[in-house]
Amino acid sequence: MLHVKKNDTVLVTTGKDRGRTGKVLVVYPRQKRAIVEGLNMIKRHTRPNPQRNIKGGVVEREAPIHISNLRVVNPQTGEPARIGYDLLADGEKVRVDRKTGETLG
Description:
The chain contains no helices and 10 strands. With 105 residues, the protein is mainly β.
């Protein structure tokens, strides 16, 4: 189980976007990577494809970031959180902010 999920707000800890926050759009669990909205932008040179209605040129888009470089931001406090896990009485596993003890998501 990864500490980062889709729609989480995350803080980037290392790299060119260090210190910036964004929303997680996609998580790739096998590669342990995530795409964060507006961060780690790359330029792609694309060919025009009239069948798919794609114009050619240079397109800027997000690239995946390794999840070890991301920290989940606690929505209540706005601070980056260290994530732990707890089992509820009904057996459900939930993410917990280690500092405050609040459950996340």
